[in-house]
Sequence to fold (796 residues):
Amino acid sequence: MGEPFGLSIGGTMKRHVFLSLIFTAIGAVFCLSSCQSTDKITVTIGMWPESQQTKDLAMFDVWRTRFEATYPQYDIEGAPYTYSVDTVNAKAQANKLPTVFQTWFTEPSMLVANNYIKDITSQLTSLGWLDKMDSSMRQALTFDGKIYGVPRDGYGLGLVLNVSKLAFYGILSDVDGDGKIDLYDKSGNPLYPTTFEQLYEDSQIIDAASDGTEKGFLVLSANKNGGWQFSNFAWNFGAELEKEGNDGKWVGTLDDPKAVEALQWVQKMAQEGLLLNNVTLDYSQWYTRLSSQVDTAVVGNDVLSLAITNGGMSKDDLAFVPMPAGPHGDRYSLFGGTPFVFAANASDDQVKGALLFLEYMGRSPETSDFSKQAIVEGDQVALGKGMPILPTIKAWSDQGYLDMADEIENQYINVNMNYYKDFFDTIYTIRHSEVPYCAQDMYTILDGVLQSVLMNPDLADCQSLLTTANSTFNSQYMSKL
Amino acid sequence: MKMAAAEKKQYRGFWRGKLRKRDLIGWALMLPSILLFTFFVWWPLGSNIGLSFFASVGFNATRFVGFANYETVFHDPIFLKALLNTLKYVGWSLLIGFVIPIFLGLLLSEVVHFKGFFRTVLYFPSMISGIAVVIMWSYLLDPNAIGPLNAIVVALGGTPFLFLSDPHWVIPLIVITMTWRGAGGTMLVYLSALQTIDNSLYEEARIEGAGFLQRIHYVTIPHILPTIRTLLVLQIISVLQIFYEPLVMTSGGGPNGESESLMLLAYQYAFLDAGTASHASLSSATSVILSALIILFTVVYLAFASKQKKEPENA
Fold:
């Protein structure tokens, strides 16, 4: 009987030789690709631009060349990684996280709890960067007295305005007749809404004038974004959402009467049809809605350019002002930011190399020529791409660094600063960090509360909803601290 | 049927370690598939079941906790909502999505002219990426006047519908989008089953005076019943695993959890609640519960099908 598929059993010498050659060839390829040994320390950079971002890529290549010339013991490799909660687990499990990558200030607690990122306190101490770090940002990156990252920059929540739309509805106008819409009257008083009550009144004007097709304000309520923004509303109405008890234990106080008042303000807006009908809006939608359906929204100053790049708006139509104050005069701005963090499996040498490379990206507190050059190049590339250049909330409080960064920034800012100055003048005094414990869980619960109100504004009982939410929050999360 | 003596001998030989050359070739050919299945299917499956009984840090099991993760999941108010919603998805999909492909298949089998054209047109939505379909429908169903469907409603003097923001309509609307995309593919399977029916049976039925509906009842349905049964169980299994539709269309299960599904909940535990202790274990426990549900449905179906099969034999 012939052998199936034409194979002969037992094998001839030829077959043995042939198979041996194949295995040898495979072995050689593996060896060539992975057995090359150099004495250099490889540092992978997650902030590296993607291949289609040619201008940014060219800039990073220049920074790499400069860095490797100064530190020949290092080999810088680009490993573009856009952080997302969906991918970080898999990458960390497979030890495939870049040596350094950027995330958001909401994430390090989770990354530390899961042992995904590395404590870099000793490296920061030896570089002398610890005391130069913005204290609020440093606190957000500190867990059990250890520091797990370096801040890139900060953001504060504020109110983004579609200036031309607000002028169309008569809320803003060209006061001085220079052909540009102004945010202030002749006495210098803001024309934009500075309180929640004004925001409500302006929304009524817009709704009436547009026959309900446009709304004055955007309320988010999904993917934890609703709870995130509502916590800022509640603070501005005078509420505290978490408190430390006499026994030293922290408890949630979502049912604070002032938080109920804040929720009732949302309810009033919904009852009168002053909000969009969607009850599942999240932060990925503000820029498209701002360009067509709503005239103000709460966003962070770090994402304003999305209104231009993704929302198709002109930079001249954008203004950014502080969060509105509540009825009792409280005014805060939720403060967060973007940190650089380091993979848990990175060696001390790799971390040191990554930190040193930050100087060549203009992201360290160093004021060297390399750092200056990098900041200038960053602004020039952004200008070349037609991006708006705005002031930033600096990650470092060292005066020398601030002077240098501000001097360069002022040369490149390409927006009408009258539209931004109130925000940047006040942010350092009104900034408010997110609640210290279980913030993400609280946001999820508050999303549900907001959706209940938006779905049924006429029947929703704000007090009862927040009491139930608080009970769930304390029993499921805060009691387990 | 009794095993032939030669086969029996060979079988015994195998278990006594007397592997013949021919067996070796067979095993060698199967080995890559076995390795791939082990690595990509059975091992992760086993690990997932194992993880559901352990506390975890990241995705690494730390200590055995028995059924504690299952207890936590069952006590999470969103779990019961997700479980109920998942069953609602199945119910609505049977109501909307199960009959339409059969109807389309029957309709198409009766078409004489432009059959290829209609087949392509009806199958076309199945060729579009699932994510693209749900994004398109999300836009069409925008609850504000800017949404195309609501723009028509407003132009006709009506008030905009809430669509996906309406807790009572969100699941049926998601099922409609799933049906819009999937019906064409299922219809083709029915069409191929319908085309295997001998025309002489229809002719005989006509001669005996059977009308259209009677021909469907006495000739068509009995012939495509095995296909209907198979597609029914496949549809139930598939809908029980609904995931990306609510993830995209209702920003992760809204409004207020009314479109949350078990699969989506497992994803949320694993990735979005990654700051919660043992989040991966909770996700594993949820997916094991979902698997148990799928197995239960399949077993019930198989028992029902085998009972039905036996009944005519016994009759």
Observations:
- The CA atoms of residues 241 and 346 of chain A lie 38 Å apart.
- The longest strand of chain A covers residues 150-162.
- The first helix of chain A runs from residue 13 to 34.
- The mean pLDDT of chain A is 90.
